[in-house]
TrEMBL record:
It is found in: Cytoplasm; Cell membrane. Residues 38-42 are annotated as: G2. This is GTPase Era. It comes from Tropicibacter naphthalenivorans. Residues 123-126 are annotated as: G4.
Length: 302
């Protein structure tokens, strides 16, 4: 048996449907899907198996015009995911067409080192008529030499199987990168992290620090049937820690309670949830690393 494995980066403007598509491909809720733009802050990965191929999805933060320093770091992180991937899928919204943001992404793609397969997936085809779709397909293919074009509806599941099959065939031959038993575990850890992140979002609203990520560091099944879950909330600055902890630790306590209750209900058993807040400032370092590689993220150039 020849196995294949590799990384697939989904890139596109905020709201293009990257999280929805990732979830559909992986078959588990790994990213929060909302109407709000720019919800995906972390490069969340999901793993799917298709025949003998292991598909590892890198769900990038939205690529958009950076205005502030922090936004630039996020754009850099998104391109970072793409630059490391074996296959890139550019997701475009059918009803919005070739926006200024899309043009900038196409310019960015043209600058990437050669050798990567880049496919186009026109999403939300449920929102347009066929002639519009055909015009858009032609327009985009005139602008960039895509390896293949897919017309999909991530939400309704249309065209998604075709895309997954194609991706499975395009990945390089090689051993699977995640052992099978870890894949089973991975979505659960992500789901648990996303639940806590969701509670943070609900509780903190506008105050929510931009570069916040949640990771499940440890998951222990206890003999009494309960689960002990340890998570770390990473923030970029020391000052953000206080926001999350709240006065006398009230905020984190409320978040922990809400997340624990949901997890417990989801898993159908008792959960002991331990949250820690740590500072990790590598978003900005990442931006600098990619600018060293020749990708320019200074104002107006992304
Ligand atoms: N009509 C329609 N809506 C879709 C489709 N796919 C996604 N959506 C909706 O588009 C919105 C954005 O989807 P997300 O998956 O959150 O988009 P995203 O690209 O991950 O967004 P960011 O995390 O902000 O980068 C959600 O309201 C989805 O329900 C589709 O095929 N058709």
């Amino acid at each position: 048996m020849t196995t294949r494995a590799g990384f697939i980066a989904l890139i596109g403007e905020p709201n293009a449907g990257k999280s929805t598509l990732t979830n559909r491909m992986v078959g588990a809720k790994v990213s929060i899907v909302t109407h709000k733009v720019q919800t995906t802050r972390a490069r969340i990965r999901g793993v799917a198996l298709e025949g003998d191929s292991q598909l590892i999805f890198v769900d990038t933060p939205g690529l958009f015009q950076p205005k502030r320093r922090l936004d630039r770091a996020m754009v850099a992180a998104a391109w970072g995911g793409a630059a490391d991937a074996d296959v890139i899928v550019l997701l475009i919204e059918a009803h919005r067409g070739v926006t200024e943001g899309v043009k900038r992404i196409l310019d960015g793609l043209a600058e990437l080192p050669q050798g990567r397969k880049i496919a186009l997936a026109i999403n939300k085809i449920d929102r347009v008529e066929v002639p519009t779709l055909l015009d858009l397909t032609k327009d985009l293919n005139d602008r960039f030499a895509f390896a293949k074009t897919f017309m999909i509806s991530a939400e309704k599941g249309r065209g998604v199987d075709d895309l997954r099959h194609w991706l499975a065939d395009e990945l390089p031959e090689g051993p699977w990168l995640y052992p099978e038993d870890q894949i089973a575990d991975l979505p659960m850890r992500m789901i648990a992290a996303e639940m806590t992140r969701e509670k943070l979002t609900l509780r903190l609203h506008q105050e929510l620090p931009y570069q916040l990520t949640v990771e499940t560091e440890n998951w222990e099944e206890r003999p009494d049937g309960s689960a002990r879950i340890d998570q770390v909330i990473y923030v970029a600055r020391d000052g953000h820690k206080g926001i999350i902890l709240g006065r006398k630790g009230e905020t984190i306590k409320a978040i922990s309670k809400a997340s624990r209750e949901e997890l417990s209900e989801f898993l159908g058993r008792k959960v002991h949830l331990f949250l820690q807040v740590k500072v990790r400032s590598n978003w900005l370092e990442e931006a600098e690393r990619y600018s060293e590689m020749g990708l320019d993220f200074t104002d107006g150039n992304a």
